[in-house]
Amino acid sequence: MKHGKKNRKFGRKQGQRKALLKILAANLILAEKIKTTEAKAKGLQPFVEKLITKSKNNNLLSIRYLSRYLPEKIRKKIIEEIGPRYKERAGGYTRIIKLAPRKTDSAKMAIIELVGDKDAGNKDSP
Q: What is residue 124's predicted lDDT score, i.e. its pLDDT?
């Protein structure tokens, strides 16, 4: 049975997989847009969205939670810039855009990005 086995493995052991997600999340928060494989983007999306949700309420508990996963420079950015940007938004902070396959190994590629400012505030604006 496959109960409770919803996460992607990426062909790595648990420690390597956690390190990969931390690095990808840090790069996404820093650059706000990264190009990676489609599977990594889909695995990264819920991880980053949970971090952004935690950063929205700026208290000691959320800062300690974020410090488990992010270095100090990136933690400051997510708390001071990204968290307040999505204060009114209930979820859906990231977007995955599928690209053409990579030439060398034909791996499915995708861009994962944070939803922009104009999309974050008002849902009524065109």
A: 44
